[in-house]
Amino acid sequence: MAERLARIALSHVGREWPQKLDHVLEGPEDLKRPAELHPAFHGSFDWHSCVHAHWLLARLLRLEPNLPCAPDIAARFDLAFTAANIAAERAYLARPASRGFERPYGWAWLLKLHAGIGPPWDAALAPLARDFADRFAAHLPRADYPVRHGLHGNTAFALILAADWAGRRDPALMALLRATALRWYAADADAQCWEPSGEDFLSPALTEALCMARLLPGAAFLPWLGRFLPRIAAGKPAALFTPAVVADRTDGRIAHLDGLNLSRAWCWRGLAARLDAGDPRRPRMEAAAEAHLAAALPHLDAHYMGSHWLASFALLALEGGG
Questions:
Q1: How far is CA 193 from CA 124, 178, 267, in A?
Q2: What digits encode the pLDDT tens for the residues 226-251?
Q3: Is the pLDDT reported for residue 321 higher than 80?
Q4: Which of 208, 103, 227, 218 is nearest to 160 (CA)?
Q5: Phi and psi dihedrals of 230, rounded to 5?
Q6: What is the per-residue pLDDT for 22?
Q7: What are the C-alpha distances in Å from 165 to residues 158, 160, 174, 202, 264?
């Protein structure tokens, strides 16, 4: 499985076309090809997918250092993570027009990549990671409301990924992430879970729950979960236990639903791991995770609209939220 996921990622991390840019044009001089704008992260259809494909490769290299494709992964990192390439990514980020670039999804994935990549490449990425950490620190106090939908703007997902970096490297940012999660979500109760929407790749309810599992003090999380999703032991809300149907995997937005199945499996496994073995909710969670994994894993490379990103979410799910 590790070799399969790595080969999927290696097939597209350097593939420039097709490309969907998050790019504000301020003048004709900004009309440049993706590889000029983003020399480190111009593959995988879009910038954030390229970032998390590199995270996938870094994580697999840590988990399975003797993979047959390990030399190919190292060669890719050597090519992408040069001082010149990272300086160019930072220069792009410093443009006034790039203030909202990839907020918050790409910000969080870049931090998770830096948290998971080892030497010598972590040193090259460190300045860019610091830039995004500073953006989180500046933005979160201004963000009066969370973003709760199941797409890239979901703020609970961003807090989870950013915490993986901040927990090791920036205590002040980690404290801000915790305070923000409490401010946004602590009072939530009895989630109705009107999902999925037709283009979701995240479950708003389960992603929020996993965010609170990650950031709430341990003794406070289980009472919060009991208020937020009080009927898990009865398999309700039923929508959270039922894998989404994906009608057309050549449609990039409908194909998001394969990602929803994977991210739900990630959330269910992560939540189950925080319950005692005898908790009646745990078998329900574990069965739901397995059902969602079974629905999605056969389709990771069915079409480029999914293959440029789904493998990363497969790895999240297979590792179980740990």
A1: 42, 24, 14
A2: 999 999 999 999 999 999 999 999 99
A3: no
A4: 208
A5: -75, -10
A6: 97
A7: 11, 10, 9, 21, 22
Q: pLDDT confidence of 320, banded at 50, 70, 90?
A: confident
In one letter, which amino acid is 40?
A: A
DSSP assignment of 283-306, as one string? Answer: HHHHHHHHHHHHHHGGGTTSSHHH
Q: Which residues lie closer than 8 Å to 270 by C-beta, 6 or more apart?
A: 210, 213, 320, 321, 322
CB 183 within 8 A of CB 175: no
Mean pLDDT of 23-45: 98
Other C-beta atoms within 10 Å of 311: how many? 26
Structure tokens at 6: 């790595």
Which residue pairs from 11-15 have beta carbons closer than 8 angstroms and sit at least 24 positions apart in sequence? 11/307, 12/43, 12/44, 12/45, 12/53, 12/304, 12/307, 12/308, 13/43, 13/44, 13/50, 13/53, 13/54, 13/57, 13/76, 13/80, 14/42, 14/43, 14/76, 14/79, 15/43, 15/44
Query: Angle 7-9-14 (CA atoms, 0-180°, nearest 5)?
Result: 115
> How many whole angstroms separate alpha carbon 260 and alpha carbon 151?
10
What is the rounded average pLDDT of the residues 258-271? 98
Confidence (pTM) = 0.98
Average pLDDT over residues 152-170: 98
pLDDT of residue 192: 92
Token pair 């290696």 in the structure block, residue:
10
Give dist(CA 151, CA 167) in Å, integer.
Answer: 25
